[in-house]
Automatic annotation (TrEMBL):
One Pfam family of this chain: potato_inhibit
Chain positions covered by the region annotation Disordered: 1-43
Ranges of biased composition (kind: Polar residues): 25-37
Protein family according to the UniProt entry: Belongs to the protease inhibitor I13 (potato type I serine protease inhibitor) family.
Protein name per the record: Subtilisin inhibitor CLSI-I
Gene Ontology molecular function: serine-type endopeptidase inhibitor activity
């Protein structure tokens, strides 16, 4: 009579809550319970002034940087920085996001 293995002695026992302890969002990672946008895809195609105004309305503490064509940026992450990439006609060409 073969007994069914119930996972006893296995190297990886099943987890009751597999996602427990993992950050589920940027806000949880940053220790904030206040839901806040982290990107603004709806601003692609708008002018930089419209984009800055909208971002400041939703994230007043944002450090907004306009990035014209051909400019280099650092790769460090800053939780208050939002970069707005614009083309020669001052239109937003990439989704502005925190970073």
């Amino acid at each position: 009579m073969a007994e069914k293995d119930e996972g006893q002695g296995s190297a990886n026992p099943p987890l009751e809550k597999p996602n427990e302890g993992l950050p589920m969002s940027y806000n949880q990672l940053m220790g904030s319970n206040n839901p806040k946008k982290t990107s603004w895809p709806e601003l692609v195609g708008t002018t930089s002034e419209e984009a800055k105004k909208k971002i400041k309305e939703e994230m007043g503490e944002a450090d907004i940087q306009l990035i014209p064509p051909g400019y280099s940026v650092t790769f460090d992450f800053r939780s208050q920085r939002v970069r707005i990439y614009v083309d020669e006609s001052d239109k937003v060409i990439r989704t502005p996001s925190i970073g």
